[in-house]
Structures are given as C-alpha cells and as structure tokens.
Amino acid sequence: MKNIKYLLLIIGIILAFQSCEDEEKIRFPEFEDAANVRIQIDPDYSSIDASDITNAKLVFSVFSENRNIESVVISAVYYSFQNDSTTDPVEIMRLTQSDFDAANGAIRNKEFTAQFLAAQFGLPGGSSDLGGGDRFDFSNLTTLTNGMVFPDTILSETQHETVNVTPNIINSAATTSFTVGFTAYVACPVLDGFALGDYMLEQIEGPADPFFGNPTRWANEVVTLTQVSPIERTFNGTYFTFENVGFNFLLICGNVLVGTTASGIGCGGPGLNWTGATPPGYYDESDDSVIIIKILENVDGGCGLPAAEPMTLILTKIN
Known about the structure:
Elements: H1 2-19, H2 23-26, E1 37-41, E2 48-49, E3 57-64, E4 69-80, E5 85-86, E6 90-95, H3 97-102, E7 106-113, H4 114-120, E8 135-144, E9 149-150, E10 153-154, E11 162-163, E12 181-187, E13 197-205, E14 221-227, E15 232-239, E16 242-252, E17 255-257, E18 261-266, E19 271-276, E20 281-284, E21 287-297, E22 309-317
Parallel strand pairs: 2-12
Antiparallel strand pairs: 1-3, 3-7, 4-5, 4-6, 4-8, 8-9, 8-12, 10-11, 13-14, 13-22, 14-15, 15-16, 16-17, 17-20, 18-19, 19-21, 20-21, 21-22
C-alpha cells in the first residue's frame, strides 16, 4: 500500500511539473494590423489632358488609418505610345507616418503635373514630349514599422502561395482598404458612353483578300464596341475569313490611334499584323456616329504579301 502511495506521489509531481511549462512558449501569437492605404483619384483630373498639356495634372488623395507606417512609396512606369516603349520604374513620391499624422490620416489633393512627371522620367522636351496614348502606371508599396510589406507574396513556394492583399479589395474604388495602383492616360476627356455598342464595320480602302478571293480583308459586318479603358475601345471582326479577330484602338483628342497588333494569323514566318498610319484616323469628339480608322496593313510583310499597305476602316453607329 505504501508503494502505491509513493507511486501516486511521483506521478502527481511529474504532472505538476509539466503544468508549469513556460506560458510564453505556448501562447497564441497576437494578430498584427495589416496596411490600410487607400488612394482616391479625382475624377475631374484622372488623366493628363493632351489638349492642354502645359496645365495638365493628376489630382488624388491618400488615406490611412494606420499608426505604424514606415513608408508609402508611389512608383510609376511610363509607356510611350509613339515609341511603343516602357521605362523602368521610377519612385515618384514617398510618404511616412508623420505625413499622415500631420493630415489626420487624410492627405488630400496631391498633384502630379505633366511637367513634373516628364521631369521624373527625364523627357528631354519636357511635357511637350508627352503624346496621346501615353500612360503612367502607378504602384503603391507600403512598409510598416514591424517590417511587413504590402503587397507581398506570402506562403511562397507552397501550394498556398498568395498575395497578402486579397483580390476582393484590390482597386475596388471607395470600398478598398488597400490600393495597389492606378493608371493615368495622356488623353482628352471622352464622354460617358461614347463609342460603345453596335457599329457597321466596312473596309473602304486597302488591299483585297488574295487567298479566298474576297474584295476586302475585313468583312463588312456588325461589330460591337466595348470599353477597355476610358479612351480605348475594342471589337471582334472577321479578317481573312477568320472570325473573332480582335482590333483595339484609342480615342485621342479627335484622332484614332492604333498600336502594332498581331492578328494571330500567319504562314510560318512573320504574321499578318497591322499598325497605325500617319496621319491617323479621326472622329468627332462630340459625335460618335462615325469613326474612321487608318492603318498600315501587313506591316511585317507576312505570307509573301506586300508590306505596310494603307487601309481604311469605317465604323458607322447603328441606332
């Protein structure tokens, strides 16, 4: 009986010792606040006005509820439509917690003028080097005082790899808690609903289809214009009898600009591609009933056909 009592005593001591394990080692980790940085663009100054480039500017506000911001770095890349080239990223603005504290968490009406942006990217002619169709792609990289970075990849190299800013809050306008970035175009304002809906597409100038014997390479048919961006439209048409070939163009202050575009059709060498002509097509900024598009067809000389032949397409709105 005495042995049993000693055995129970020893077991009790062991259990008591285990229950005294350091609480710091088994405590649940505390939750850390994520970054709350919201960028709101003034809709009246959301693009660089190409018709008044010397006075053009972007206006935006930055909001945050955080108290532990190390830095908010706004960087940008500049895309030149004319040269079809993109620069490396350039830091445009840096904010710290003291900036937000001084503004009570709401830094309002920050401005990036066209002259300022041109200088940041070293454009030799200043803002006069900016042209319709150019754009600035801005990004936000926020670092907190605890070392956390947003956006950042977490659980990397695992099947659960993801970004620590979830898709449901990326750039969701006024409801977002973190703005990843925004894009500003060099363009004239385009009216809401302008150049959208059904249009009759006709090729009124340019080479015929030598493969299938058609008088035009683009079929005369009804197409639907949809919006890619405030100034960019797209439609799917029939090209060399191939259906659903995409065609994009930009509405820039009365001019219709077309970037170099691959049709996806070829004969084993260069594809049947096109690019914008000079002078470009045109439209009436107050009337979207007719849009004239001018391109250089087969700019790369694909399929043994003549290269860079002028072509004109007309889009007529169907009421």
